[in-house]
């Protein structure tokens, strides 16, 4: 007769096979590893009980795939995915939701210090207070002091966590402390961003904060021709220039601005800026600057520029570009703990749907959002789908705005602003709106086309659940093609295992750079 006993090691040991004399008298005892015992206990279905009392993390159309917030599968345990059969055409209509497990986004608790404790200029703190921004978020508490101390920093933190203020405050503070320059002085800080909409947004925040401390802010964005770029410098060179790389290169070629006297260079939205489509231009801009290698380079008669690179995701090519302009080893890194995880405060639903049914599903979702008074971003993968979908929604009587890169710059300029002002509640757009744009009004993101990469998914969903926001965010993704399903399976597996998205692990992030705690 065999008896099962709980093993103390993960490996089975057959005790009866030992050569002790007493063994012959005893019935053989087989020690079975705990995992195998648990598997045996699951019954004939072989399924692990993934539900426990309490909140549900993942709720599915088929309840046997539900997973409780209190359950996490073992590291080597096979994860049962609701989306496993989604390549089959009969799976249409199936769905699952990753529920939010946290209520507040990135906001600091009442016991966190206020901005005053970060030792930025009192006028800046007061300007923030007037805007209702009192306590710094995690990334602000990390980045501001390091920049004030003169370090070059590479900073990766989730979408909507407040990175813009995290770099703007020390930049404005240090320019203010340096005193008023000569009237014809060169620009002292350049902030580089990938789109004119984002340039517009960052410039308006910088202006609101720069005004009280007597600093001027200029803006040059792409797509408006040389006349518009020249006009940006008509009133003299601004202290801070927010620019897209293409427009800045044009300004440099025509000598409207110089970058060799900069005190600060900021590269925002690193994943797009270091993407091959931008990195060539960015490299050309950076080679015209003198980037410091350590804080002592910021002093003396010819001070160099401090460099800060920020993003919510980081591509591989960052080092290749930066290596040419500074000592990478001297850069500090800041990385938030939940980088490249699904946002825990945003409810995310995935719906397997036939291509022909997507419009119907979308109009249902838009009706629900309208009843709740929620603004919606609808993402498509191409400009032509934006145009087609806009036309179809128009036919259905849905008021909306459209934003895609092929639109003339003059038209694009007003679209996002009018959406922000609430003149339209639905914005149909390409990924041009997924990077950096602050969308406090938006409560629902719809992936009409499933994004092509996990990075795009992170940035799109990151348009909801932003710091300082009062509203619960939600994302709805339509899953149609087999290649969409592959991506969904990776996302579902990461959600169930509570790991970051596969292939985006940041354990060895920027090896060779000092960790932020080194300073
Ligand atoms: N300390 C704070 N308290 C309250 N709200 C804040 C705070 N810091 C920033 N915000 C607000 O949070 C929102 C998101 O900030 P921001 O756009 O800088 O995020 P981000 O990290 O740059 O996002 P993304 O990665 O999408 O570019 C903005 O509306 C901003 O005004």
Please give the structural blueprint:
Blueprint: E1 3-6, E2 13-14, E3 29-32, H1 34-40, E4 56-60, E5 67-68, E6 95-98, H2 122-130, H3 138-148, E7 153-156, H4 163-177, E8 189-192, H5 196-210, E9 217-220, H6 225-231, E10 240-243, H7 245-253, E11 264-267, H8 270-273, H9 276-287, E12 306-311, H10 318-323, E13 332-335, E14 346-352, H11 358-371, E15 375-379, H12 383-395, E16 401-403, H13 409-421, E17 426-429, E18 442-447, H14 454-461, E19 473-479, H15 482-497, E20 514-515
Parallel strand pairs: 1-3, 7-12, 7-13, 8-10, 8-11, 9-10, 11-12, 13-20, 14-19, 15-17, 15-18, 16-17, 18-19
Antiparallel strand pairs: 2-3, 4-5, 4-6, 6-14
Question: What do these coordinates show?
Answer:
This protein has 519 residues and is α/β, with parallel strands linked by helices. The chain folds into 2 domains: 57-104 and 343-497, 3-Layer(aba) Sandwich (Rossmann fold), CATH 3.40.50.300; 115-340, Rossmann fold (3-Layer(aba) Sandwich). It is built from 15 helices and 20 strands. The strands form 3 sheets. A 9-stranded mixed sheet has the order 5-4-6-14-19-18-15-17-16, with helices on both faces. β16, α13 (409-421) and β17 (426-429) form a beta-alpha-beta unit. α4 packs across α5 (196-210). The chain is globular. Residues 1-24, 40-45 and 511-519 have low confidence and may be disordered. Residues 133, 135-137, 140, 159-165, 312, 436, 438, 440, 462, 466-468 line the site of adenosine-5'-triphosphate.
């Amino acid at each position: 007769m065999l008896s099962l006993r709980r093993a103390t090691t993960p490996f089975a040991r057959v005790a009866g096979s030992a050569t002790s004399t007493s063994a012959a008298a005893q019935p053989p005892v087989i020690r079975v590893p705990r995992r195998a015992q648990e598997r045996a206990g699951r019954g004939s279905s072989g399924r692990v009980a993934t539900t426990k009392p309490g909140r549900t993390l993942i709720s599915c159309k088929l309840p046997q795939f539900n997973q409780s917030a209190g359950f996490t599968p073992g590291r080597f345990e096979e994860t049962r995915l609701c989306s496993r059969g989604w390549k089959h055409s009969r799976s249409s209509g199936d769905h699952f939701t990753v529920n939010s497990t946290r209520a507040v986004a990135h906001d600091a608790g009442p016991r966190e210090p206020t901005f005053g404790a970060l030792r930025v200029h009192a006028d800046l703190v007061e300007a923030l207070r007037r805007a209702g921004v009192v306590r710094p978020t995690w990334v602000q508490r990390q980045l501001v002091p390091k920049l004030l101390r003169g370090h070059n920093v590479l900073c990766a933190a989730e979408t909507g966590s407040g990175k813009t203020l995290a770099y703007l405050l020390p930049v404005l503070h240090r320019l203010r402390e340096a005193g008023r320059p000569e009237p014809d002085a060169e620009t002292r800080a350049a902030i580089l961003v990938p789109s004119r909409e984002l340039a517009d947004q960052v410039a308006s925040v910088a202006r609101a904060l720069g005004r009280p401390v007597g600093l001027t802010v200029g803006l040059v964005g792409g797509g408006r021709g040389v006349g518009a770029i020249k006009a940006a410098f008509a009133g003299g060179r601004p202290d801070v220039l927010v620019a897209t790389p293409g427009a800045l290169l044009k300004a440099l070629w025509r000598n409207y601005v110089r970058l060799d006297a900069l005190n600060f260079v900021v590269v925002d939205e690193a994943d797009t800026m270091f993407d091959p489509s931008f990195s060539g231009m960015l490299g050309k801009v950076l080679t015209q600057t003198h980037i410091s290698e350590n804080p002592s380079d910021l002093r003396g008669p010819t001070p160099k520029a401090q460099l800060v690179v920020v993003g919510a995701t980081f591509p591989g090519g960052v080092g290749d570009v930066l290596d040419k302009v500074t000592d990478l080893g001297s850069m500090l890194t800041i990385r938030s703990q939940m980088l490249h995880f699904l946002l825990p405060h945003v409810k995310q639903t995935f719906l397997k749907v036939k291509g022909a049914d997507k419009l119907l599903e979308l109009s249902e979702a838009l009706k629900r959002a309208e009843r709740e008074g929620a603004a919606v971003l609808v993402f498509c993968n191409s400009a032509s789908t934006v145009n087609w979908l806009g036309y179809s929604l128009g036919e259905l009587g849905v008021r909306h705005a459209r934003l895609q890169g092929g639109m003339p710059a003059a038209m694009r300029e007003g679209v996002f602003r009018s959406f922000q002002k609430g003149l339209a509640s639905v914005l149909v757009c390409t990924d041009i709106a997924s990077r950096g744009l602050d969308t406090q009004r938006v409560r629902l993101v719809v992936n009409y086309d499933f994004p092509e990469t996990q990075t795009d998914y992170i940035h799109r969903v990151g348009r909801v659940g932003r710091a300082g926001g009062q509203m619960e965010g939600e994302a709805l993704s339509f899953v149609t093609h087999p290649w969409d399903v592959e991506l969904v399976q990776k996302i579902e597996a990461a959600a169930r295992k509570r790991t970051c998205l596969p292939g985006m692990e940041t354990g060895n992030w920027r090896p060779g750079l000092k960790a932020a705690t080194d300073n």
